[in-house]
User: Fold this.
Amino acid sequence: MYRLAFAAPAAIIVALVAVVASLAIGAQEIPPADVWAAFVDYDPANASHQIVRDLRVDRTVIGIAAGAALAVAGALTQSLTRNPLADPGLLGLNAGAALAIVLGTVVAGVGSFAPQILLAFMGAAVAGLVAYGVGATGAGAAAPARLVLAGAAVTALLTAVTSAIVVAQPFALNQLRFWLAGSLTGRAGVPTGPLVVGIGLTILVALLAVRPLSAIALGDDAAASLGTRAGLTRVHVLVTVIALAGVATALAGPIAFVGLAVPHLVRALVGPRIGWLLVLSIPFGAAVVLLCDVAGRIVARPGEISVGVTTALLGGILLALLARRMRAVAP
Amino acid sequence: MTLARPARVSLVLAAITLAAVVVALTYGQTALPWWDSLQSATGFTTDSPADFIVGQLRAPRTYTATLVGALLACSGALLQSVARNPLASPDILGVTQGAAAAAVASMWAFGNTSSLALAPAAIAGALLTSALIVGVGWSRGIQPMRLIVAGIGIGFVASSVTTYLLTAVPEHLAPQAYLWTIGSTNARVWEHVTLAAIAVAVTVPLALWLERKLRVVEMGDDLAAGLGVRPVRLRLAAIALGALAAGLAAALTGPIGFVALVAPAIARRLVRTEGIALVPSIITGAALTAVADLAARELFSPTQVPIGLFTAAIGAPYLLYLLHRAKGIRS
Assistant:
């Protein structure tokens, strides 16, 4: 319990620091006093105030929502598959959502956001079910690697189709180029507000799965004797994961590895209890995405590095290190 | 007079490859007398439109695609033999992505786009990546699954560099740069063919020289040591040569996926062997990319589709099938 007493405040402090950094630091140097004034003493004529109030607030909100969504989705996926390497991005859900949105944009010029969200759900669902169906079935020590490989195959195919489309449609590419790399700048025609609310509600629905998930962790028979219906719980979790990955991708593009890394971080802090894992994934997920985004703004001044690039860079290193720690599999 | 099975398989495959190349040279949007086409394709002047259409457009890309297929298959066969696992290939282990990232970085830094200028960077990228994979994934001998998951992680790191550069190039270059995420045989010239021919002439004889020793090592390290083969040195040499072949292929066309994975598998099945079958693998790879290039050129004509889309469309389902068949995972 003492670890929890440390971890919960730490999570909130880290998330707050990340939010402040995301509001205060950017390509444009704005003194902290001006950032503060933009909120308490807003002057519409002041360009600095406009940047903070319009651009940075939006970007920070998208970062919080996408980060929390991806981290919770990763925690759910890892708990459900009992696989430490599971992550919606690695499994191809984000790539599926991205492909569906690109297809919609090119074929039908989907500018409005309702069709986009539906497309993102469908893309994430198809990709996720294929990877899960191939990779999550079967037990044994090779299972974690198998899931990663199945996800890599699905991701490679979907990314190839996406690349082929945007190469053939330069117009679409220039609209989608930064979003495809994973970025928090938002897009025209995709309102932030409703999506963020949607993510919040979906996370609440996800938290309802804590008890049955903990029961399933004991095995399906034990879960049944506790009154948990394993099949229903799996559907509940899968639908939630697909919704979270789909909306996060529609908002911020395909961002990988947040769902892999954050649950590992949280487990290292508070141990394996699923309830705390999901709850603490919210602030830590937001913090990781915001800090990666801020780092990308600082390193590449006056340009910036998209947040998806930074997470893939750090996440790839993490995956390689996790592989190194993988139990030696008996031949 | 009966030939051994590998020789018969190789002859049949070579005939298929030759047929695919002839079709690719003589068939197209512009109907030409096939005799003119074949003359132009082999360097004779016919004083007809075929001189340009076949001699300058069809022939270079067909030959480049075919030779790159041979290089990729050579790389895949070597790596699969070393890892003792049908899932090892330069594109899954991240070697291809490392080569592509280095090539794009050199393009971005020096503004050169010719394969000849990119080749050193691509080869360096491939060798550096393979060294990283060995460094991370190699502890207490080779654990195939650990190696593969480490490779996927390192591949993500390399891809993130490419993705960043895609957002950093000017808008009008973006579609061109995007081909570096998928692999393309469009707009190849004779310079590519020359480089590809040199690459095959260097790597394939070396691989054939290693093949005999690899066969011995496949039977077990103790036996190999008894026969005077040093297993560890041989594996490192095979990995380096596999990386070299993959790097050269990436310099010529960008990262064409899945050929290196699938071609050796098809060849092994045809030859009915569990071990390395280098010559049949190489010819299978050539046949695959010759056919995929023809499809990329003509299937959606006049739109030119990147060849990587077709290899992914064949390769990704095959990989998923391999994973689904748990037997395919010898961990």
About this structure: The CA atoms of residues 77 and 278 of chain B lie 6 Å apart.
